[in-house]
Amino acid sequence: MKSWQKKLIKIVSPLLKKLEPDHGAAHSRVVFWWCLILTEDNQRVDKDTLFAAAWLHDLGHLKLKSGIENRERKHSDLSISLARSILKKAGVSEKKAKLIKEIIKVHEENLDLLKMKLPLECLIFHDADKMDSLGALGIARQFVYSGRVNKKFWDPSIPRNASLPWGGNFSAMHTILDSQMNLKFYTKKGKRISEDRKRYMHSYIKRFFQEWDFKK
Ligand SMILES: [Fe+2]
Ligand SMILES: [Fe+2]
């Protein structure tokens, strides 16, 4: 590991402890691991920027307290404001810092990233981050997150609305059904692996509602 990377992790680790386990260091490690998998076929990608973004992109959650009102304030913008001084302290060059901030800016973007003509690193990072929202671990992360922001795991009295960011974030299941299951992927590998994870989630959702209806 390069010295600036060690420095960056040293600064960020105590902050990420407050976001465990859904957006903490474990998530950062997994996201960077996915970045490496998704870049296997493309050696020209700047892995340094992906590394830094993995450790910095969700710090903005520290400034959010709860619910959709706050999530709409975009944690990505809040992460960028925190990342600025951390990147300077870690000694990251201006050129790399610019790309890192661009990656963070669009990692949660709902618009079509292909139309935005972004550097490849932005697309790879987006897919790597979203991969951790899918599958068994993605479901677990969503339940933990919803609990942390005082949401139920499911509330059928609230109508679903997939047009809202994160499906309205009304409950964990609202977000899983109307946000996670609709996540778009941009890289070839990301598309393939995400389909497999979504298949598993379909079976989980089916079972969840079978058990929910039985409970009534
Ligand atoms: Fe995020
Ligand atoms: Fe993330």
List keywords for this structure.
single chain; 216 residues; mainly alpha; Hypothetical protein af1432; binds fe (ii) ion
How would you describe this protein?
With 216 residues, this protein is mainly α. It has a single domain, classed as Hypothetical protein af1432. It has ten helices and no strands. The protein has helices spanning 3-17, 25-38, 47-56, 67-71, 75-90, 94-106, 120-131, 135-148, 172-178, 188-215. Helix 2 (25-38) packs across helix 7 (120-131) and helix 5 (75-90) runs antiparallel to helix 6. The radius of gyration is 17 Å and the shape is globular. The site of one fe (ii) ion has 5 residues, from helix 2.
CATH architecture: Orthogonal Bundle
* Uncertain ranges: none
Predict the CATH topology: Hypothetical protein af1432
Class per helix and strand makeup: mainly alpha
The profile of the biggest β sheet is: none
The Cα radius of gyration reads: 17 Å
What is the helix tally? 10
In percent, how helical is the residue content? Answer: 55-70%
Count the domains.
Answer: 1
Q: Average pLDDT, to the nearest integer?
A: 93
**Bound ions, cofactors and other small molecules, one mention each:** fe (ii) ion
Shape descriptor reads globular
Q: What's the gist of this structure?
A:
This protein is mostly helical and 216 residues long. It contains ten helices and no strands. Helix 3 packs across helix 6, helix 3 crosses helix 7 and helix 5 runs antiparallel to helix 6.
SSE topology sketch:
Layout: H1 3-17, H2 25-38, H3 47-56, H4 67-71, H5 75-90, H6 94-106, H7 120-131, H8 135-148, H9 172-178, H10 188-215
